[in-house]
Amino acid sequence: MSRKPLILAGLMLIGLSALLPSLEMKEGRMKLVLTENTGRFSLYYLSDVKKNTYVPLIFDSDPRTSVITALVDNRDYRLGEDLNFRNVIVKGDSGAGFRFSSPTVAVNEIFTFIRSNGEDLANGVRISIDVENLSDKPQKLGLRFLADTYLGEKSGKHFSTDVRKSITNELALTRLDGDAYLVSPGEEGVSLQWMIGGSGITRPDLVVFANWKRLIDSAWTYTVNPGRDFSLLPYSINDSAAAFYFNPVTVDPGGKRTFDLAMGQLSEKGFAALPQETSSASKLFQTAINAASLSTDKQVSVQTDLISIRDLIDQLDRKLDSKEPLSKDDLQIFRQVLDELKKRQHNY
User: What is the model's pTM?
Assistant: First the structure.
């Protein structure tokens, strides 16, 4: 991948990264990093539990290359960059994200860790985006999510979907095409799966696969050329991206639009964006025990148990942050967890 215009900016970002307020969250095999100053996120999958190796699912050398654009009455605003919007990190009971706000519009982007069907540990995220009309008149509100993919670039197999074996040139998918998900296929068992449809998923009006620089430099609309690949000589070579378009509709004063997305490590059964019930401490621990018991490698089992302990501590922290008193059931659950850990330590 070649991005000459971004080399200097990338070096500056690396030098300043320590100064940027950020929030890091982990659950299961996922790690999410939110950077307040830029309003951008990085998402990682724990590919090797034994070595504690995380692989980014989207391009992370400069997270600013993935961006949400809000369309307000035919004027586009690139969130995290446009001075009309202020961005802050927000935290809730089950997730965290950003709030981008201007005098007339607010966009809330909230991330929640999720599991695909059959998985014991979190292996993806749900992204719920609200666009609110704060003005006193109707406004046409739309959204574009540009994802800077990279995993498929090394092999040249940039994308596939559940019905398309390989996408190597520009392509536009509409609602009529019906593809359920796209894949950016990586190596060593890590591939990005981004849901296009399915349970709880807000299906985009349009999905565009194209060169990243062409997409980032374009206005709201983009004209696809099926004969064009993912290079833009001489600045952007073998550089693919996917843009998800949600066309503008009129929203009344005080009203909002909600978009539910889901992405994560490739899973045969895919992801749903429906809110998952908050796991009880006992269930969360038990699923981790199940995952650990599948491995004959003691180090992997230990690391998996540590992941479960971390998730339990995070759940306890969320309960404390909510200022709700712990119930007798909660306390009993944590006692059971401690007893189980004492039993399991003899295995190591």
Answer: 0.82
